[in-house]
Amino acid sequence: MQPRNPDDLEALRAASDILGIDALLSDDERAVRDRVRAFVDQSIRPGIADWFDRAVFPAELVPELGELGVLGMTLDGYGCPGRSAVEYGLAALELEAGDSGIRTFVSVHGSLAMGSIQGWGTEEQKQEWLPRMSRGEVIGCFGLTEPSAGSDPASMKSFARREGDDWILTGSKRWIGLASIAQIAVVWAQTDEGVRGFIVPTDAPGFEVSVLEPKGSMRASVQCELHFDDVRLPADALLPGARGLSGPFAALNEARYGIIWGAMGAARDSCEAALAHALRRIQFGRPLAGFQLTQQKLVDMVLELQKGSLLAVHMGRMKDAGTLTPAQISLGKLNNVREAIAIAREARTILGGDGVLLENSPIRHAANLESVRTYEGTDEVHTLILGQHLTGMSAFR
Questions:
Q1: What gap in Å lies between CA 227 and CA 206, rounded to an integer?
Q2: Has domain 9-134 been given CATH number 1.10.540.10?
Q3: DSSP conformation class of 98
Q4: Which pLDDT score is estimated for 3?
């Protein structure tokens, strides 16, 4: 048997698809995947190592992402693409194969900000914002997490009080993606009526943004801290359809669903880098791929990649059928991110010393996935969600 050609990526990818997951996809789904994959190859891969190294988010790609049809991808109407959950998942996978920061932009802007406006906003709010956001002309961020309220959003301190017909917003938010480049923020705050959501222009007087840096993870992305010093908002800034935490939690579940797929993109890219290197690298007179220990690493990585990818497809089908539950989303997020980190780390070992160079993706994916593991619910939070599902008892307090 002849060794595989390390330069034939499609053949390596086909060999890794041992379960034949590709055959589970429709022609339309594969077309979406291939279009996003081509975009990643042409517009993200050539620059991502430099962007990561310089901690730069490539904002020039935002209109291109809009043209690609991945902003608010599953939303219907208002100029949004209206694609299926599986198609969105495949797009998330391919984008994160490029970099977690790019997929995170699509998730924060499309699932969290646009999804909140679509789900809880007035017709006027939807007409005003969603068409421009779907084209990438207006960028939105999502303000829920606070310096002292991360995994426990019910403890948020931000408060909006009524003053006549207006609202006065005070408080702060932390780890808010995109805020320094966004034109609007969907902000959740306590009120006398419970937690409510607001559309807040980022240029409003009293709205301050500071970028959180330097970072060792998600460097080709933007995370910020927000401060609200008596920010005055008109009555029509309120998202009237959301009361309590059910609104932001619904948006978070949309973002978590995308992570189930996206993590497998980072894992797949890491596997491919490791396999190609092992086939090229000659040690002790033969390719590294010919040694038993290397083959065990490759097999273990592909086992988890295949299982995680199959899980993502299954959950996508359930989401399209309207049967996917929050506990199932927690299971997918917990498993796939955890396994993706293990895959990226193991892939780095196969690349040896060269594995720490940014020209090779596994070290970047491993660093990024540490952030993905934390945001949209830590391992601990998703473990307790699943524990509550199994036992019927909440262990959060």
A1: 8
A2: yes
A3: H
A4: 87
What burial class does residue 293 get, using C-beta atoms within 10 Å of its C-beta: 0-12 exposed, 13-18 middle, 19+ buried?
exposed
pLDDT in tens, 370-394: 999 999 999 999 999 999 999 999 9
Each residue's pLDDT tens digit, 73-92: 999 999 999 999 999 999 99
- For 174, the 3-state DSSP assignment is strand
Pick the CATH number of 246-391 from 1.20.140.10, 3.90.1150.10, 3.10.580.10, 1.10.730.10: 1.20.140.10
Which sequence positions are flagged as catalytic? 376
Contacts 24+ apart (CB under 8 A), 50-55: 51/99, 51/101, 51/219, 51/220, 52/99, 52/101, 52/219, 52/220, 52/358, 52/364, 53/219, 53/358, 55/213, 55/214, 55/215, 55/219, 55/220
Task: Render pLDDT for 158-177 as a digit per residue (tens, 0 to 9).
Answer: 999 999 999 999 999 999 99
Q: Which two three-digit tokens encode residue 131?
A: 């068409």
Indicate if the pLDDT at residue 146 is higher than 80: yes
Q: In CATH, what number does 140-239 get?
A: 2.40.110.10
What is the DSSP-derived secondary structure letter of residue 366?
A: H
> At residue 266, what is the residue type?
A
Can you tell me the distance from the alpha carbon of 146 to that of 175, in angstroms, rounded to the nearest whole number?
8
Give the other-Cβ count within 10 Å of 380's Cβ: 11
Residue whose token pair is 């797009």: 91
